[in-house]
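Suppose a colleague, Dr. K., hands you the sequence of a protein chain of 358 amino acids and asks what its three-dimensional shape might be. Before reaching for any lab equipment, you can write down a predicted structure in token form. Begin with the sequence itself:
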Amino acid sequence: MSQGKGESSIPDEEWERFLREAEAGTPGAPEEPSARARMVADKLRSAPQQPDAWRAHRPPRERRLRTWHVLALVVAVVALIVALTPGALSGVFGGDEDGGPLAAESARPTGAPADAGGGRPTVDEPFKGSPAARWADGADGITVPAARATGWMTKGQVADALARTRDFLAGTNTDPAALLGRRPDAAIALVNPHQPDLRPLLTTAFDKPTAEHDPLLLFTRYRPAEVRLVGDVVRTRGHLSFTEGRRGALEVTADVTFVYPFTRADGDSDEITRTIVRRELVLSWDDPTKVKTEPGTFSVSSYKIHTTNGGCDTIGFLSPAFTEDHRPADGGEEMDPYDRSEGIEGSGSGECGTASRS
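The predicted structure, expressed as tokens, is then:
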């Protein structure tokens, strides 16, 4: 082995032995250590007793703590997004119709729902290929907001009015008996009987419907001799909201879409067609000391309806069309019946148009 300039050729072990013998008084040992001996002695005194191993691992504690801080921040941000925008991550964690039910709708969405993918509806899956495949059943699809004291009503009274509003929507659009054309007496009992402009609609329209007094304006019905509902549920999506109205009334606004899968009643075809009905209602729960009303009833301030595949110019009952029944629409833009990002224009079903999907 070569040595560097100025290095001693005597091993350190020999100098250590020499120093120990000199300190012990070994005969022949020099009385005064050389400069080299003094250097080695100083080196031994200053050396640590247990030096670190060459490959010893010290965990990067500071870096690990920072990593956990970043992870905690990410989790907090995701939780905030989910809380403020229910369903905002549905596109990340499964956005197709097999991804489970959607989060409840608490406000008007900002756009149309995504394409649900291909596939024709079947008897076992009548909502297949439709956004409604992930919607809730019946009244469960109508979101009711938390109550608070508003106008002349206490918090408890507001909660009761919201529950009754949802009962009215379910009773007029999802109740099996009402769908078959029977008079929904329980739902009608919630309407203020002293509202003069609604009396004909609630009394004679079921027996003698006219264009002016058509029960379809507030109630969904079909003729069981023509079509039958596939399965025993109607898919719904929508929400209620409320504010203080005129004379301190509680004004409740409902915006709900209902989807009905039908097949022919004669059983000659297994084709399934869907009818989509969207309703916007404004109901006024008036102060009985200021407005003539009955306890537990509301007045209908306004109602709007848009129906897809319910039949053009039909009165009294829905008349859904099947493949061979469809006729080209008389111009107009296609509209998406599942797009709830905009309000309904007009006050009735209006003229027939073309739906982009069913």
